[in-house]
Amino acid sequence: MNTNHKIRSMKNELFKELDWTSTLVPFICIALLCVLFVLFPEGSSAFLNSIRFFLGDRFGSFYLLMGLGALICSLYAAFSRFGSIRLGDLEKPQYTNLQWGSMMFTAGLAADILFYSLCEWMLYADEPHISDMGTVQDWASVYPLFHWGPIPWSFYIILAVAFGFMLHVRRRSRQKYSEACRPLLGKKVDGPLGRLIDLTAVFALLAGTATTFSLATPLLSMALSRVFHLPETPALTIAILVVICAVYTLAVYFGMKGVARLASSCVALFFLLLAYFLLGGGESQYIIETGISAIGNLTQNFISMATWTDALRTSSFPQNWTIFYWAYWMVWCVATPFFIGSISKGRTIRQTVLGGYFFGLSGTFTSFIILGNYGLSLQMHGKADLMAIYRQSQDLYTAIMAIFDTMPAAKAGLLLLALTMIAFYATTFDALTMVAASYSCRSSQEQKEPGRFIKLFWAITLMLLPIALIFSEKSMNNLQTVSIIAAFPIGFIIILIVWSFFKDAGAYLNEHK
Questions:
Q1: What distance in Å separates the CA atoms of residue 488 and residue 498, rounded to the nearest whole number?
Q2: Domain residues of the chain, as ranges?
Q3: Distances from the Cα of 466 to the Cαs of 36, 312, 328, 475, in angstroms?
Q4: How far is it, in rounded angstroms, from Cα 211 to Cα 220?
């Protein structure tokens, strides 16, 4: 009798608190797209790619200017009068610096960072633009730092400040994109315009989370297959996704304490993997020296790299890479900044911005310098022709396996990689689940987390599409393209949110003179 009563209470909680329109409409749209991708793979792929090419080619400058604008706005927020505003009424931050940095870093990056750290230099090595700038040695290690550096993190940081101000200073109860636009749009956010903003945001969130597994999961599957001599089948991939789902669902179920502990464990595994390559690979001097040179080249050429449009389309490098990355980070801005803003209670805006850059860039730069430069050292020193392996197989995963084959205790290294990837995915989806649960609620109290049943609903929902999509690689690529396309309207919403923040924060400072 008590069990039935609890189940009824949980159902009542779900139906009462969940905003079904904002949740189900985007989900149904994504599901319908998946069906179309499976039934009409060639036609849907051609159509989406044409739209993606149009946005990247014709409106590429929009994405580039968005990146520069986010960076400038975040620095202005930190070093202007707005920097002294404290996010909330706590005398000291809610979390320690290490806890906060760990949660922020792991929430902002899925296991994709490990995949790209190991192989991204290969993607640039054959690019004509790299040859035009200099040698592979000088530039193949620079662009990964650029594409995962200050501008991508600025998207997260400026929005985290805006959402943190909204949640902890103005104490608004609706944790939604539309609510962040209220200082500028007023009561319009309660009507069709606000509903459109929220539907666009949730659509982008679902598309982004559904496709985050498209690149890194095959690497995870291949690593476990080699360690345990298992066949690489869809069943293995599904089993991996189920394990990830179980880990992050358990952590989310226990609330922010569970999320914080899982984030700390993820960071520990991450640095253990970096130490394995730095100390065990025998290339530590090359790794460090090439990393220092890469940071120097990035610093000297940052403005030109951030503003280069390739107007003559001599290589279309910015269209193929820089604009692609900016768009993908913009899609992920739907959830991650909300999480960063929510855990930043007690910090000033200046501390949030500068701390965000410190922990974000420290993590990404260290990852790319150590993991990426180890593979580059094998290529440059002639110890392994990774580019030949990649050109012949057209498979980055095979090239990455070749990197591990050069390491001592390769199977142990692959197992460590797999554990770290699972931890990254779990911690990222922890944050996404917490935000999605709050985002889909009709309102949320500042001190109250969403109900456990709602968090469990999202924990399972966010994993269903990736499981369905692993059976069709074309569907994965197409849905990733949908994510990139979704970044275009998200860009305009980001502008509204940042504009609203500065307007509201200015009014707040005038009120407290």
A1: 16
A2: 17-307+335-511
A3: 16, 39, 17, 10
A4: 15
